[in-house]
Structures are given as structure tokens and as C-alpha cells.
Amino acid sequence: MSKNLAVWEKAKREGRKMTMITAYDYPFARLADAAGVDAVLVGDSLGMMVAGEADTLPVSLEQMEYHTRIVAKGITRALVMADLPFGSFEESPAQAFRASARLLKAGADIVKLEGGAPMVETVSFLSQRAIPVCAHIGLTPQHVRQLGGFKRQGKTADAAARLIEDALALAEAGARMVLMEAIPSELATEITKRVPVPTIGIGAGNGTDGQVLVLHDVLGLNPDKAPGFAKRYLDGADLVQTALSQYAEEVRGSIFPQG
Ligand SMILES: Nc1nc(=O)c2c([nH]1)NC[C@@H]1CN(c3ccc(C(=O)N[C@@H](CCC(=O)O)C(=O)O)cc3)CN21
Ligand SMILES: CC(C)C(=O)C(=O)O
Ligand SMILES: [Mg+2]
Questions:
Q1: How far apart are CA 257 and CA 236, in angstroms?
Q2: Which residues form the active site (predicted)?
Q3: 3.60.60.10, 3.40.50.2300, 3.90.226.10, 3.20.20.60: which CATH number matches 5-234?
Q4: N- to C-terminal Cα separation, the chain
Q5: Taking the domains of the chain in order of start, what are their residue ranges?
Q6: Which of 118, 159, 161, 207 is the one with CA 20 to 30 A from 221?
Q7: Which atom of ligand 2 is nearest to the CA of 41?
Q8: How far, in Å, is the centroid of ligand 2 from the Cα of 196?
Q9: 43 lines ligand 2 (CB under 6 A)
């Protein structure tokens, strides 16, 4: 059962790669689970992928609870990770606990929060209170205003050293996984070697213990430009649009329904 975090720790020790994909609803959660993906992430990227927002900042805790619930209903085997949305956890460890408990009640097995050193105290607080936590470092999209765009991180020696320190401190504080987004491959590989917990990468090369991508990028359902590191395995938008125009044509031509 990939739901058990011990499975992930064992996979890291044995050098087996783990797989994760985002999911935002019941049908796609079922498909990801049946496909044998090890974990689904109810990402706050749902703000962009299903709600049409320009970034993840508008996503609310209520939205995350709702999507976590409908995803969890479709999962029998995979680990369910849910993002703590912007504004729901940064104020204090107590605020983070209240938000995390709501996501676990909605069906999450583990919560993910964005941030490095400033989140160490919160990760420790949650970890001591029954909340498994994944720390998300590197490009943290909730910091987009501060970062000035979705830009790759950890490019200077100083920035790289800080990310290594952050990862070690977060794992020491009790983080059960570390997710790294849009950082150099060599840096992600080094962090993976040095932290005792499984790492997951997105746009961070092939040296991490696992990989995650956004579902709509993988299926070709993202109407906007996908990041360069994403790989499309299906022309979903084309297939869906063709099917829908065929349906409309058949109705207009009195071909459907028959009789
Ligand atoms: N569809 C989608 N897939 C994603 O994986 C994703 C999102 N959206 N939105 C939220 C974040 C942002 N993502 C990104 C986006 C761009 C880069 C990137 O490599 N940017 C280039 C160009 C930046 C610019 O033009 O300003 C870079 O070199 O930094 C990385 C991660 C990943 N996440
Ligand atoms: C891109 C992944 C890591 C994420 O945080 C999300 O989908 O919200
Ligand atoms: Mg996210």
C-alpha cells in the first residue's frame, strides 16, 4: 500500500522511483489509482487547472477540503497528499494545525506546505501532533508575488546552499517528504542523497526519489502553456474537442438520437 509512508522510505533505500500526479476530482483520482500511480496530489494548482485563475493565490481552504474529499473517494491504494493553500498556515503553527486537521478529515493522508526555514517550527509542531507533512521548496508558487514570476530557483551557489540547509532542517523537524520544484538537477540530486526522507521532484531532473507532474499537463488538457519540463502523454484537448463537435454535429444533423 503506497498509503503507508514506510513504503516510500523503503523505496528510497532500495532506489525504486516513486510516482505522483495531481488529481482534482473523483473520475481522475480513480484513473490515477487504477493506473498504479503511487500518490495523488490534490494540488492548489487546481486554482489554475480547474478554476481558471492566473496563479494559486486565490485558492481557499474550503476549496481544498472539497477537492480532497472528492479525490479521496476515488482512491483505494494511492497516497493522498493535499496542499495547504496560501493564507491557511503561514501565521502560526496553531493555524497550520487547524487547516491540516481539516484536510486530513477530508481524506488526505499527508499535507504539503510551501516554504523553507521559516516553516521549520510549523513542520515540527504538526509532526508532533499526528499530521504527516511534506515540505515544498525551490519554486514555491504561493510566493509568486515575491519571486516576480514562476522562475527557476537555486541557481546561485548561495541559493543552492540555502536550499540544502532548508531541506535538512525541514527533515530534521519531522517532514516525511521533501518536494523540490524547478531547481537544478545536480542540486536536487545532492539534496536527495543528503536528506533521510523521500524526495519528489518537478522540473528538478531525474535524481530525486520520485516525480510529480500536473495532470492537465500530462493529458494535454491545460489550455495555457505548460512549463518546459512537463511531458504531454495525450492530446486530451484535441480528443475531447473532436468528440464534442461530433456530438453537436450529430444532433444538428438529426443523427443522434436515433429513432
Ligand atoms: N500547468 C502548470 N504546470 C505546472 O507544473 C505549474 C503550473 N502550471 N503553475 C504553477 C507552477 C509554476 N510552474 C512553473 C512554471 C514555469 C517554470 C519555468 O521554468 N520558468 C522559466 C521561465 C520563467 C519566465 O519566463 O519568467 C524559467 O526559466 O524560470 C517553472 C515552473 C510549475 N507549476
Ligand atoms: C506542482 C505541484 C508540486 C503542486 O504543488 C500543485 O500541483 O499544486
Ligand atoms: Mg501546489
A1: 25
A2: 181 (proton acceptor)
A3: 3.20.20.60
A4: 49
A5: 5-234
A6: 207
A7: 7
A8: 22
A9: yes
